[in-house]
Amino acid sequence: MPELPEVQTVVTELNRKLSGKKIVEVSVRLPKIVALGPGTLPPKRRAQVHKVIKFIKLLKGQKIKSVTRRAKIIIIDFYGPLSLLVHLKMTGQFIYFRKSQLQKRVRILNKPTAPLLSLPTKYTHVIFTFTDGAKLFFNDTRQFGYLKLVSDAELPHVRELQEFGPEPLARAFSSQVFENILKRRPNMPIKQLLVDQSLIAGIGNIYSDEISFRAKVRPARRVKTLNEKERHAVFAAIPFILKKGIAAKGSSVGDFVRTDGSWGTMGKYHYVYMRAGQPCKICGTMIRSMKFGARTSSFCPKCQK
DNA sequence: TGGATTTCCTGTCCGC
DNA sequence: TGCGGACAGGAAATCC
Q: Where is the signal peptide (predicted)?
């Protein structure tokens, strides 16, 4: 499940690999995965053939200037007046192979038992081919992700780029900024607040659980019940945990893979996420889990108050 | 306006 | 061996 550290890993790698490359061919194998223009995607996405044709036509011949990120959205910027916005959601993957690597086989599911597959697989929905024969594959098992092509003029009107809270690794994300966010949602469980993209950008289920653990605060604690020390512990844990995730090239619990198909290593450093029923690495107490709406949150009942 | 709920989607896992 | 159902979850839409 790509969150800020996973998306940052992909962005760093793609920026290095794709900058200066020119697209010669675009293959869209699942039409509903691509979109044009700034509007939000309807709940039930329908394939619109004319849009797919236009999507391909606009991208052919484009040269990539840079690959950046806002929250969990990947922004591929072209020298022309276009940007491609990509959201990986839960199971989206970008895998890049040079021409000489195209026969390479990878495990796109992060289990040792998953089969080694050559690309494209049946989950490969979009393929970009570059002038040097290299290819970029977009895979997405659950089809929640999307690739949205917008013009530079449309960029300020893209709703999903407007409604993000501050970047938690930016210098501007001070303790005062965090305190102000907490003041806006006194009744919210701290876990809910951490994953709300309109309040803080980029944190999802994995990292919110790990941040709560490091701060020794239970995910269900309502914001207004946190004392000053606890609030500061949460604030300090946010960049600490996110930077750790980036250093490990992401967590590969779930379906995340790096752009060469290899796995991130953050998973083995998790204290609580996906560890319900296992002993706490600090105190040995059984890790418990609870539900917030549709989301599961794990915590140590002894280490976290 | 905040908060809860539903929806999109498919692979995996568990019980029978 | 196969089937049904629960579950996983980011975030938009919808409802109260």
A: none
